[in-house]
Design brief:
Layout: E1 2-15, E2 18-23, E3 26-32, H1 39-51, E4 53-56, E5 62-65, E6 72-77, H2 99-115, E7 120-122, E8 130-144
Parallel strand pairs: 3-6, 6-7
Antiparallel strand pairs: 1-2, 1-3, 1-8, 4-5
Helix pairs in contact: 1-2
Length: about 150
């Protein structure tokens, strides 16, 4: 499982020109599931995303978590996080999870974040989406559940 987290002052997702979800300060999370991801991978990613301390404290140091700043989440499914570009110029996506299991993991990730008390907006799994954001910092973090 891979996520790309961007610290944002605001972010939104629209489908066909209609806003599907939007947030203020928090994280835009691009979420990708691999073929062989497990509950352990999901637990790890939830824990890392919700506990990540990258918001500035009173001294300007990245020391505060999403909870500390009452931050929100916007979660977007993105299988292209598993692009393999080793051969040629057209990426392969053989490591990406199949749509059914990947969608279930995506929805479970969102549900778990909400259960932890975070306001969580979402895109639509598999849809063609337009995502807009203001990356604050900029701060962009990549987390891979296989790299622990």
């Amino acid at each position: 499982m891979k996520v790309v987290i961007q610290r944002v002052s605001r972010a939104a997702v629209s489908i066909g020109g209609v806003t599907r979800g939007q947030i203020g300060q928090g994280f835009l999370v691009l979420f990708g599931a691999a073929k062989d991801d497990t509950d352990d991978d999901l637990d790890y990613i939830v824990r890392k995303v919700t506990g990540l301390r990258v918001f500035e404290d009173a001294e300007g140091k990245m020391n505060l978590s999403l909870k500390d700043v009452n931050g929100e989440l916007l979660v977007i499914s993105q299988f292209t996080l598993f692009a393999d570009t080793k051969k040629g110029n057209r990426p392969g996506f053989g490591a990406a999870g199949l749509p059914g299991p990947s969608k279930e993991l995506y929805l479970r990730f969102i549900r778990r974040c909400r259960e932890l008390g975070f306001t969580t907006a979402e895109g639509e799994f598999g849809a063609d989406m337009d995502v807009s954001l203001v990356n604050q910092g900029p701060v962009t973090i990549i987390i891979d559940s296989r790299c622990r």
